[in-house]
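Lab notebook: predicted structure, single chain.

Context: the supervisor wants predicted structures on file for every construct in the current expression panel, including those that have not yet been purified. This is the next one on the list. No modifications to the sequence; it matches the entry in the shared construct table.
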Amino acid sequence: MTLPRDRLITSLVDDLAPVRRRAPVATPTFAWLVLAAGFVTTCYLLVQPFRPGFLGQLLVAPRFALETALGIASAALLCAGGLALAVPALGSPWRRLAPALTALSAWVALNLYAFAEPALTVSMLGKRSGCIWEVLLAGTPPLVVLLWLARRRWPLRGAVNGLALGLGAGALAATLMQLACLYEPAHNFLFHLLPGLALGGLGMAAGARFLRTR
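Prediction complete. Output recorded below exactly as produced.
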């Protein structure tokens, strides 16, 4: 005689359907980074050209090159970490995001150190009147794409997911603005970096609202 519990287990097994394994986060992260960088760069160029000589500055100023590399690395790691976190798994979300948050902290710290010792000669060359709004506006569509990608992975921690993805999109937009606009540490921090970090708050709010399992 079949017990009620056995019938329940049997019915659950009969209703199971194959689930497609999600692709590793490296693939969507790389695709997003390339496409988002192209999108943000195009948005900035539609306003005005990048700061003259920024490529030469990357070659002759190692600390400025390191700042830029850390910004791009932060964007990539936060994107990968946020997408990976969208797949349910055991463990603290903050521990899983530790590499990304470490890179982000190092990037912010290096920008703060520039207040005492600028990486480049301070100059008004390349000044953009609305750079703060450019960072926010150009960084938002890449964030929307990341939220869409995360939603397809059955996220359980929407706010944390959104925070990581928002910081990633913001780090990319802010880093590219550091190449496009004038170089002055206080200006860079207030009008480039802080708006980029503010996208983390936007991502957190959007993640809490929209990153829910279906």
